[in-house]
Amino acid sequence: MTETIDLQDQIAGLDPKHGIHVDGRGIGATQTFAVQDPATLDVIAEVADAGPAEATAAVDAAARALPAWAAETPRARAEVLRRAFDALVAETDLLAALIVAENGKSQADARAEVAYAAEFFRWYSEEAVRSEGDYAVAPASGTRTLVTHRPVGVAALVTPWNFPAAMATRKIAPALAAGCTVVLKPAAETPLTAIAITRILKDAGVPDGVVNLVPTTDAPGVVTTWLEDARVRKVSFTGSTGVGRALLHQAADRVLNASMELGGDAAFVVTADADVEAAVAGAMIAKFRGGGQACTAANRFYVHADVAEEFVQLFGAAVEALQVGPGADEKSQIGPLISARAVDGVRALVDEAVAAGATVAHQGGTPDEGWFFPPTVLTDVAPDSPILGQEIFGPVAPIVVWDDEEQMLHQVNDTEFGLASYVYAGRLQDALKIAERIDAGMVGINRGIVSDPAAPFGGFKQSGLGREGARDGIREFQETQYYSVDWS
Ligand code: NAD
Asked: Are 461 and 439 in contact (CB under 8 A)?
């Protein structure tokens, strides 16, 4: 009870009715929208609902702030980013509580997300100062070529609800390191975390106008306003492949620089000589982090026939033992899904798989109230079952048994997605031989997690364009310019 009162006080302290953040100030709108806790279905806040006018005001502020921020020395920008890291870490309790309340994930998952989210500021504070270019002698003429990288300009950032902190910081930190200013639209389900981050960044010394926030229920209205504004020179989107594709069409009209982090359909491969206990431990992380609502979530399991029985038994027992409940309860390991619609979608996929011959081999329980779905293991899943080709985005693990490596690899790659995959094998070189034939941007080798701020996160095929994290993440917010120097 005390915790609930504290959280309500903290939410009130964020003043979400003035949650639009432009030029360093919180502003309101004529309307507000409700944010619901997916575990209790309580309305936990009313947030200012921005429209195209506020979207344009945010670009005005970002465009005004751009010249001074771009002209800062890399060291000065790095120091602001480093202070931002410290400030975000210091506010771990607040940010984790907000993530639990509006997204529903467990406290452990929420705290892990805050640590991951903050780390982008530390990584890019270190990377911001490595702004080297190239100097070359042109082969025929002997003229000199100088290559440098400039901030692309005002960047429009659009983020999903499943990692309300990390998807924002994974874009803001490299953009700021590159010298860009930003306008950010969070998902309407999870605006509170973004509001808190914006305030924390301001207090940490990010200059007014450099980071602007526009919560809204009119995503197309706000984002279209940005994509049509000539001052916006970049769009960086994380979300579903369908929306990403539509934004790419819009971006094409202005030949707008676009980065896309889209959906996934990760395969989790277990070979005959894998350490089965380790594979099960990895599978629990790869599948159930955030209740299965991660773009990198293991979506389908390909387990070698020699170890299938043991794997299903151990995995099934671990799944049945999972504590499902509100994230606010410390004992909960898995929270609710984000919406009633999400629950219906996952249930439809499971029903369809069962109708096509799959067996519900293991299933956990759920509380009666809230948007919960029980953690579920499906066996006897036909290799062409639709559940293997679409993002489940819920705590369901379909298992396919294989004994022919060529056939298994064909099935693994038979998807429009190519974000992440996982391979568990006894010998590293065997795991790598399989990984090198998987068409995915990231492969966990004997690990159930691939996210790392220092590594290039992104996908092949319809999972996206571009990379976030690592040095690549800064390049997404830079233009390359070269000077051809007369050498007569
Ligand atoms: P979504 O595509 O519905 O929404 C993402 C964002 O786009 C939200 O801010 C939303 O308000 C906005 N949006 C929705 N429709 C829009 C429109 N017509 N015009 C402009 N903006 C619009 O995705 P979601 O349900 O919030 O997130 C889940 C999806 O995100 C999954 O597919 C998941 O795989 C993907 N995801 C990908 C990554 C990655 O790094 N590749 C990371 C996290 C999530």
From this structure: yes
Q: Which of 91, 113, 261, 468 is catalytic?
A: 261
Instruction: Specify the pairing of strand 232-238 against strand 257-261.
Output: parallel
pLDDT in tens, 4-53: 559 999 999 999 999 999 999 999 999 999 999 999 999 999 999 999 99
Q: Is 295 a catalytic residue?
A: yes
Rounded CA-CA distance 46/482 in Å is: 49
pLDDT for the residue 131: 81
- Between CA 144 and CA 486 the distance in angstroms is 7
Residue pair 98/107 in contact (Cβ under 8 Å)? The answer is no
Distance between first and last Cα of the chain: 78
Q: Which residues line ligand 1 (CB under 6 A)?
A: 158-163, 167, 185, 187-188, 219-220, 223, 238-240, 243, 246, 261-264, 295, 391, 419, 459, 464
Q: How confident is the model at residue 132, as a pLDDT? A: 87
What is the rounded average pLDDT of the residues 415-425?
98
Q: Which two tokens stand for residue 259?
A: 């980065």
Instruction: Provide ipTM, 2 decimals.
Output: 0.97
DSSP letter assigned to residue 387: G
Write down all domains in the chain, each with its CATH number in brackets: 7-262+463-483 (3.40.605.10), 266-452 (3.40.309.10)
